[in-house]
Amino acid sequence: MKILIVEDEPKTGDYLKQGLVEAGFSVDLLRDGTDGLHHALTESFDLAILDVMLPGLDGWGILGGIRRAGKDMPVLFLTARDAVDDRVKGLELGADDYLVKPFAFSELLARVRTLLRRGAKTTGAEFLRVADLELDLLRRRVTRAGKRIDLTAKEFALLELLLRRQGEVLPRSLIASQVWDMNFDSDTNVIEVAVRRLRAKVDDSFEPKLIRTVRGMGYVLENPLCA
After folding, report:
1. Distance (Å, rounded) from C-alpha 22 to C-alpha 122?
2. Residue 25 and residue 60: Cα distance in Å, rounded?
3. Which of 17, 48, 91, 173 could anchor a disulfide with 4, C-beta 3.0 to 4.6 Å?
4. Residues of the chain with pLDDT under 70
5. Alpha carbon distance 175, 135 (integer Å)
6. Residue-level pLDDT at 211
């Protein structure tokens, strides 16, 4: 699942991003409110985490822009403000939750998962499936033919990306940016190694094989029996 963070405090933003990435999420981090709103409106996210006080445009302005555009993704506010009026304003504008700084990351993660669970029930996107492979987005679990498969956080994120865009050939550069949040370096084999390990877990002991290499282009996940 993909999360947008708009937070101008470098330490807080980096801390949140690292924690959520380690928890298996794909994360985009923006420092400016105007850039954050543009990103929210032009990209697809499952959740937005917004600071209130931001350069360019405050969190309330971002939320207003998101809701006026008809986007119903969950929004969690992070702020040092703890006045009741501030919390009420955010909720009246359409925020889904409000967390006051300082906070424990474990509490934030619990709230993130709760909001994602609500959103998944609304959109019907709680599970991703192809053939007999099933990915449970809320419990972060993968099964194939009813057998539980244990994946690392990065392997889960890679499989989620492939499943969300099944049938589409994904170039290595896109995988690198979405899963590892890095620019693709042709001298590194991190993508190949990760795909090889994922295949060993979800394909090698099963039929049909679902992950395919398209030489010179990238990787695609699809059910060959339905292609």
Report:
1. 26
2. 24
3. 48
4. 81-88, 90-91, 119-125, 181-188, 227
5. 18
6. 96
Q: 123: part of which helix (H) or strand (E)? A: helix 105-123
The vertex-64 CA angle with 60 and 68, nearest 5°, equals 175
112 alpha-carbon distance from chain centroid: 11
Label the pairing between strands 218-221 and 211-214: antiparallel
**Domain 127-221 carries which CATH code?**
1.10.10.10
Output the pLDDT for position 206: 95
Tokens matching residue 165: 């865009």
Q: What is the largest CA-CA distance in the chain?
A: 58
pLDDT digits (tens, 9 = 90+) for 91-111: 677 788 888 888 889 889 988
Residues of the chain with CATH 1.10.10.10: 127-221
CATH number for the domain running over 2-123: 3.40.50.2300
Q: pLDDT value at position 23?
A: 85
